TrEMBL record, chain A:
Pfam families xref list: Complex1_30kDa
Family: Belongs to the complex I 30 kDa subunit family.
Organism: Nocardioides panacihumi
Name of the protein in its database record: NADH-quinone oxidoreductase subunit C
Gene: nuoC
Sorted UniProt keywords: Cell membrane, Membrane, NAD, Quinone, Translocase, Transport
Keyword NAD among UniProt keywords: yes
Automatic annotation (TrEMBL), chain B:
Protein's name in the database: NADH-quinone oxidoreductase subunit D
InterPro entries to which the protein is assigned, alphabetical: NADH_Q_OxRdtase_suD, NADH_UbQ_OxRdtase_49kDa_CS, NDH1_su_D/H, NiFe-Hase_large
Highest taxon in the source lineage: Bacteria
Its EC number(s): 7.1.1.-
Native organism: Nocardioides panacihumi
Membrane topology: Peripheral membrane protein
Biological function: NDH-1 shuttles electrons from NADH, via FMN and iron-sulfur (Fe-S) centers, to quinones in the respiratory chain. The immediate electron acceptor for the enzyme in this species is believed to be a menaquinone. Couples the redox reaction to proton translocation (for every two electrons transferred, four hydrogen ions are translocated across the cytoplasmic membrane), and thus conserves the redox energy in a proton gradient.
Length: 227, 443
């Protein structure tokens, strides 16, 4: 995409992330993405944090401030990154935030919910990410909320956005996030009696036995790989 | 356990009869007093008119549907999970297999989000963008052709099916010429496309456009005013704008309500703002309107293909991949007699001339590139509606999480709203008008 055709639904002037603390969602060790190899370079002991983009500070610029102002009561953490704005809200505020966004700010269209499992993000391991679209104003935002692994409950947004019916079922199926108030929270993609939630990072992966002198193909997360 | 003559079990919900081809008289005798018109029919998952492995649970009162539910998941292959254990480039190979009628859209959605994470959106060369547009619009034509063809077949219009697949084959031939494969191309890569247009491709494309201009009117002649066709499609599967927005419908279903929402116009990507085309709408919000929109969109796609071909003619020898050697696939690919592979010139270079080039190739192919931490969502207008990939990176060489917002999955939720209260035969038409592809629904 060239300079001239940046979509007009992103404000021209947005503040750059201030030098506040970035959110750490994990750590990365070693230099070359491998472990368990005979790395004698000394870089194998390197430990670096995995930092997500830092929150922005008000004013955010353009219509971002309008949306942030309307949501002020929920005190969202705002992250502006790569031209996309994310509102991190507490799960208790989620329904109220969604109602304001739909009714007052005309975010009529919800693209769905996507779960993400950050096993190292202590106290908020499970994230639910909603992508909202205002067709009236041609704006897109992302709303993100979290739940701890020990208490994976979120309020259901089906009463606000009926389209989330299947999306929440899928997220429950894949991550074990329980959406309270969903009309029928059952598995949707996996079989009804399936144990576990496959998209979680701690879901055990199977290896493949091969017919060669007791050899096996190890599960992908235990294979030697660069990451 | 039930025997041949004793084909029911008593449950808390009442007596359940299992019918599997036995003597109907024997069954009706057993029904005795409880006989009424209400039956629950399990349609699918293996039924020719449920678009792949879709299971419908229909509650019927006579021939009227009182409740329709979908059972999905029969084609779940864990593509999103698999992508977390492959490099960023290899992810394309997986996601192209999701919605198998629109592989190039899946690839583009994933690649655009990845490029936003990499921060190279502005560096992708013009020729790569034009080729993406060209391929996507050809793909839109082939996808709509299947939608119309299978939709026609399901209501008994077999000629529509045969000519639909005849034309689709022409598009697939073009894909084979350009990408090396008819489907599952893995051709659109982060940073550009896999390889340049082969010689003679533009002539083939222009020939195809000319042929389609003669062939597309056949569909209009066969269907547009055909009284049987109209009787089956008119006022069937109606869903108004309010319902569409509440259920998150997009694509032809949304545009059949008269709302001209098309991401190619409203939130352009890949340079769509530089092409002249019109957003097609209809005002009946029914299956017939969706059919006409698909027909008209094929004409618009032909317009875009022509413009893209003209631009490509001026872009001979232009780059098709970002210049950043740390992202661009190291080898130039070529199509040999046995399919696509590394070009012989490149093999000669890394094996015979430059050790550094060999190391670079090896590192980039086995390890891949790293993507800065963050998340991105860049939706595109697929043939069925808004298709987007929510891509999360933790700074590694593999995606941390990829979630596809597939329009088939979302749109299929409207099955019950569109079919309840109608005739059982109209369920088929309503689903065909949504045009779900189960590979995309189940992923």
């Amino acid at each position: 995409m060239t300079e001239g055709n940046v979509p007009d639904n992103v404000p021209d002037e947005t503040t750059s992330p201030a030098a506040v603390e970035q959110e750490q969602i994990g750590t990365r060790s070693g230099m070359f993405g491998t472990s368990g190899t005979g790395d004698t370079s000394g870089f194998g002991g390197l430990v670096r944090p995995v930092l997500f983009p830092a929150p922005a500070t008000a004013p955010y610029g353009g219509w971002y401030d309008e949306v942030a102002g309307a949501l002020a009561e929920a005190e969202p953490t705002v992250v502006i990154d790569r031209g996309e704005i994310t509102f991190h809200v507490r799960r208790d505020d989620l329904v109220a935030v969604a109602r304001i966004l739909r009714d007052k700010l005309r975010f009529e269209f919800c693209s769905g919910v996507s779960g993400v499992h950050y096993p190292d993000d202590a106290g908020k391991e499970l994230h639910a990410v909603y992508h909202l679209l205002s067709m009236t104003h041609n704006r897109r935002i992302r709303v993100e909320t979290t739940a701890p692994d020990a208490d994976p409950r979120l309020p259901s947004l089906v009463p606000v956005y009926p389209t989330l019916d299947w999306h929440e079922r899928e997220t429950y199926d894949m991550f074990g996030l329980v959406f309270e108030g969903h009309p029928a929270l059952t598995r949707i993609l996996m079989p009804d009696d399936w144990p576990g939630h496959p998209q979680r990072k701690d879901y055990p992966l199977g290896g493949i036995p091969v017919e060669y002198k007791g050899a096996t193909i190890p599960p992908p997360d235990t294979r030697r790989s660069y990451n | 356990m039930s025997t041949y003559n004793d084909s029911f079990t008593d449950t808390s919900e009442g007596r359940v009869f299992t019918v599997s081809g036995q003597d109907w008289d024997a069954l009706t005798d057993q029904l005795g007093e409880v006989a009424d018109e209400r039956i629950v029919v399990n349609m699918g998952p293996q039924h020719p008119s449920t678009h792949g492995v879709l299971r419908l649970i229909l509650e019927l009162e006579g021939e009227t549907v009182t409740e329709a539910r979908c059972g999905i998941g029969y084609l779940h292959t864990g593509i999103e999970k698999n992508m977390e254990f492959r490099t960023w480039v290899q992810g394309v190979t997986f996601c192209t297999r999701m919605d198998y009628l629109a592989p190039l859209f899946n690839e583009t959605a994933y690649v655009l989000s990845t490029e936003r994470l990499l921060g190279i959106e502005d560096d992708v060369p013009e020729k790569a963008q034009v080729m993406r547009v060209l391929l996507m619009e050809l793909n839109r034509i082939s996808s709509h052709l299947v939608a119309i063809a299978t939709g026609g077949m399901e209501i008994g219009a077999l000629t529509v099916m045969t000519i639909g697949f005849r034309e689709r084959e022409l598009v697939l031939d073009l894909f084979e010429l350009i990408t090396g494969l008819r489907m599952n191309h893995a051709f659109i890569r982060p940073g550009g496309v896999a390889q340049d247009l082969p010689p003679g491709a533009l002539e083939e494309i222009r020939g195809f456009v000319e042929l389609m201009k003669k062939r597309l009117p056949e569909y209009a002649d066969l269907c547009n005013a055909n009284p049987i066709f109209r009787a089956r499609l008119d006022n069937v599967g109606v869903l108004d704008l309010e319902g569409c927005l509440a259920l998150g419908m997009s694509g032809p279903v949304l545009r059949s309500t008269g709302y001209p929402w098309d991401l190619r116009k409203t939130q352009p990507y890949c340079g769509y703002e530089d092409y002249e085309f019109d957003v097609q709408t209809w005002d009946t919000a029914d299956a017939y309107g969706r059919f006409r929109i698909r027909l008209n969109e094929m004409w618009e796609s032909l317009r875009i293909v022509e413009q893209a071909a003209d631009r490509l003619a001026k872009l001979e020898d232009a780059p098709i991949m970002v210049s950043d050697k740390k992202i661009a696939w190291p080898s130039q690919l070529s199509i040999g007699s046995d399919g696509m592979g590394n070009s012989l010139d490149h093999i000669r270079h890394i094996m015979g001339e430059s050790m550094e080039a060999l190391i670079h190739h090896f590192k980039l192919v086995t390890e891949g590139f790293r993507v800065p931490p963050g998340q991105a969502y860049v939706p595109i207008e697929g043939p069925r509606g808004e298709l987007g990939a929510h891509v999360v990176s933790d700074g590694g060489t593999r995606p941390f999480r990829v979630h596809f917002r597939d329009p088939s999955f979302t749109n299929l939720q409207a099955t019950s709203v569109m079919s309840e209260g109608g005739m059982v035969a109209d369920v088929i038409v309503a689903i065909a008008s949504i045009d779900p592809v189960m590979g995309g629904v189940d992923r």
